[in-house]
Specification:
Blueprint (H helix, E strand, L loop, with lengths): L1 H15 L36 H11 L53 H9 L1 H4 L14 H11 L7 H4 L9 H11 L1
Helix pairs in contact: 2-5, 3-5
C-alpha cells in the first residue's frame, strides 16, 4: 500500500514537472527558458511513439555510454568509459537515486522521479532543469525528439529479461600476472 502511495505521488510530481527552487525562482536555470517550457514537447499524457532499438543503442553509445554502464554490476566494457554515473541497467520504472554511483563527491542527484517515458525524455532533453541545477554531468542534453525516443526504446531493453546483460561473463582479473595464470590453467 505504501509503495502504491509513493508511485502515485511520483506520478503527480511528474505531471507537474520539475520543481523550481523558490530561493532562485528560475534564474539559476536560465529564467523562463529554464522553466517547464523546456519540456514543451512532452505533454502530461505522453505516449512514447515508435522508435528503433538499434538506433537507440547507437545513440546511447554516442551520448551516454561514456559515463553509464548497461550491466547490473556497473562494469566498464570499453576504453575511455568511466563509472561516474549509475548503471542504467533496469532504469525503466526505477525510482531516482537508488543505484550507487562511483563519484562519491556527487551527492546532488535527481530526487523524487520515477524513470518512465516522460521523465527519461525530459531528462535527456535538459538534465539541469530536471535536476533543478544539481547535476554534475558534462552533458547539455539532446534536443532532437526522435533521438531521445530511440534511446528510451533501447533503455527499456536493459532489464532482467535481457539474458546477455543480466548474466554477463565473469570479469577478467585486472592484475596481468593473474590473467596470465588463468590463461595457462585453461590450456
Amino acid at each position: 500500500m505504501a509503495a502504491l502511495s509513493l508511485i502515485s505521488s511520483l506520478a503527480q510530481r511528474l505531471r507537474r514537472g520539475p520543481a523550481q527552487c523558490e530561493e532562485h525562482s528560475g534564474a539559476m536555470f536560465g529564467g523562463a527558458a529554464g522553466s517547464l517550457a523546456a519540456f514543451d514537447d512532452v505533454p502530461d499524457d505522453f505516449q512514447l511513439p515508435e522508435g528503433s532499438v538499434q538506433k537507440g543503442e547507437k545513440y546511447f553509445k554516442k551520448y551516454c555510454a561514456q559515463c553509464h554502464s548497461i550491466y547490473p554490476d556497473n562494469r566498464l566494457t570499453r576504453a575511455g568509459q568511466t563509472q561516474i554515473g549509475p548503471t542504467l541497467f533496469n532504469i525503466y520504472g526505477r525510482a531516482s537515486g537508488l543505484e550507487e554511483i562511483q563519484n562519491k563527491q556527487g551527492t546532488d542527484r535527481v530526487d523524487n522521479v520515477l524513470w518512465l517515458e516522460a521523465a527519461l525524455m525530459n531528462y535527456m532533453k535538459n538534465p539541469r532543469v530536471m535536476a533543478q541545477g544539481r547535476v554534475q554531468m558534462n552533458f547539455a542534453g539532446i534536443k532532437d525528439f526522435q533521438i531521445r525516443v530511440d534511446i528510451v526504446h533501447y533503455l527499456k531493453t536493459l532489464d532482467w529479461a535481457n539474458e546477455e546483460l543480466a548474466n554477463p561473463p565473469e570479469k577478467p582479473a585486472s592484475f596481468a600476472p593473474v590473467r596470465w595464470m588463468q590463461q595457462m590453467n585453461n590450456k
